[in-house]
Amino acid sequence: MTVEIGDPIPNLGIQIQNAQGVNEDAGAVTLTILAPDQSVISPVISHTVGTGFYSASHTVDQAGQYRVTWTATGANAGVFVDVVTTESPEFGIVSVQAVKDALRIRRSDTDDDIAAAILTASDICEGTEGTNKTWRRTVVTDEVHSGGPSFQLNRSPILEVTSLSSGGTVLDLADYDVDLESGRIFGVDGGTRRGQVRVSYVAGVAGPIPAGVREGCIEFVRHLMASRRGGSGIPRQDEPDFSQGPGYLIPNRVVVAWRGASGVGL
Length: 266
Description:
Layout (H helix, E strand, L loop, with lengths): L1 E3 L8 E3 L12 E7 L5 E2 L11 E3 L9 E9 L4 E10 L8 H8 L7 H16 L11 E9 L3 E3 L5 E9 L2 E2 L6 E3 L4 E3 L9 E8 L7 H17 L14 E3 L4 E3 H8 L7
Parallel strand pairs: 1-7
Antiparallel strand pairs: 2-5, 3-4, 3-6, 6-7, 8-14, 9-13, 10-11, 10-14, 12-13, 15-16
Helix pairs in contact: 2-3, 3-4
């Protein structure tokens, strides 16, 4: 199943039966959830609905896969494992459901294709062909730069710089000035540091993603899905509608939607 970050895992429960197929309690039941960062979560289990029924609640807050394991021991012992994949602005600027609602798609057999198109549209939106701005919260680890008076991080804006190091030595963040909007770091050791500097940081916007950016991504998904159409029922573009970016054809209606938020002046 797929769940958006910020939503609870649906139907997080288990029904236990005996060998005759009749609901029956286990001797004991435990639930462990392995999060994408490999941390282990043990939610409180509720056993109030009826014989054999156990449930819990957990709201996902990371991008990736959650491995859910229910373990019954003693009477009616057994193990049930499920995998939950999260989707959110950390994966795509818009969700699969937002695209389906906007394009009035009711079927689910194209969800994987829509998800892939969303990732493509989101990457292009954040690249130099699009807005040249990171909208999704993105964790960057050990990005390498040459030292000197200042240097430009690969992504911006910046939510937080978490660490800097050089030659295996951790540098004091208080010694540096960071332009959060532009993603530029100034005053590396007063300009005396030379050689490679490794930077870990979190990029993305602090507030909600603007409506124009989201609408542009949805429109780009429409274009990508139309080009792959094979009985999907998704409308084709009505007319040629392209603007040549640096290496990519972008529909003009997408350009207009992104223009107000662009860092490169589409």
